[in-house]
């Protein structure tokens, strides 16, 4: 593993690079830390140049600000990282808020992507108007305003299936706790307001796949993936396990990710190309 720091619009972005082969950029969600994907990156380093990073304002990166996070800036950071480290093109995987950033990157900077796998973007604004899950971000913001990061963090964990059933690496957990106020106080509004640009994503010149974990059917962060896939006419696939299966079982998650990643990069493959219907069950 090689680590370095990259200058990007007033921030120093910590990133890690493993392996060789086609570039695979992995974008993390809440807590924005490269450590989420360390195990998966090690598993995939035999076939990909895997790039992970601490997002702006999180963990070992700088750039924390009192101003609300802008998804366009997060996408610009990812684009600059691809330009600098990956030679200008990369396959992108994002989980949760990282999937939201990946979808934003695909809409704003399509020239740097060879493909996108968006795993469980919590894009609750695509759900029906009367769906109770549409209030998730507002409810969490109110809880943070009342009880601070500890109260919001506990509730956040309670809403995420599987959390508490396995142990996080100690260093990652410590960094995540240090990121909580930044998450709920600064990043939250950006994620809450996200709406995918369906017309632009429909016209993307690269394959896109939406995905969710098998154990997460019906969850507020899994159901939007099905709806986005339907709206833009791309495949939906089911991954093993929970929202953060890459932390609980990195080898299993990496094996599942390897299949669409390899197919999407194959000139002969059609996986992730436009289709009239998504694959997989409605949730």
From TrEMBL:
GO MF annotation list: transferase activity; triacylglycerol lipase activity
Alphabetical GO biological process terms: glycerolipid catabolic process
InterPro entries recorded: AB_hydrolase, AB_hydrolase_1, AB_hydrolase_fold
Domain AB hydrolase-1 as annotated: residue spans: 22-188
Gene3D superfamilies found in the cross-reference section: alpha/beta hydrolase
Keywords for this protein: Transferase
Alphabetical list of Pfam families matching this protein: Abhydrolase_1
Domain of life per record: Bacteria
Descriptive protein name: Acetyltransferase
Source organism per UniProt: Streptomyces viridochromogenes
């Amino acid at each position: 593993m090689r680590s370095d720091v990259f200058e990007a619009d007033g921030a120093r972005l910590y990133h890690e690079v493993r392996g060789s082969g086609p570039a695979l950029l992995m974008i993390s969600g809440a807590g924005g830390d490269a450590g989420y994907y360390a195990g998966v990156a090690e598993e995939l380093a035999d076939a990909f140049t895997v790039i992970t990073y601490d997002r702006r304002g999180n963990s070992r990166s700088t750039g924390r600000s009192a101003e609300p996070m802008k998804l366009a800036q997060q996408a610009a950071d990812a684009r600059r990282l691809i330009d600098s480290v990956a030679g200008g093109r990369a396959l992108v995987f994002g989980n949760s808020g990282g999937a939201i950033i990946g979808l934003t990157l695909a809409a704003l900077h399509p020239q740097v992507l060879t493909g996108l796998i968006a795993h469980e973007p919590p894009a609750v604004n695509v759900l029906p108007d009367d769906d109770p899950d549409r209030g998730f971000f507002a409810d969490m913001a109110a809880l943070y305003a009342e009880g601070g990061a500890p109260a919001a963090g506990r509730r956040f964990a309670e809403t995420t299936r599987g959390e508490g059933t396995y142990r996080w690496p100690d260093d990652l957990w410590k960094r995540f706790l240090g990121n909580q106020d930044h998450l709920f106080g600064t990043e939250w509004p950006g994620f809450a307001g996200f709406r995918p640009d369906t017309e632009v994503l429909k016209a993307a010149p690269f394959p896109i796949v939406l995905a969710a974990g098998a154990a997460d059917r019906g969850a507020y962060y899994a159901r939007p993936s099905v709806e986005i896939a339907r709206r833009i006419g791309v495949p939906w696939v089911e991954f093993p396990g929970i929202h953060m299966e890459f932390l609980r079982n990195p080898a299993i998650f990496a094996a599942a990710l390897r299949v669409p990643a390899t197919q999407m990069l194959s000139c002969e493959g059609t996986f992730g190309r436009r289709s009239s219907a998504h694959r997989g069950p409605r949730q």
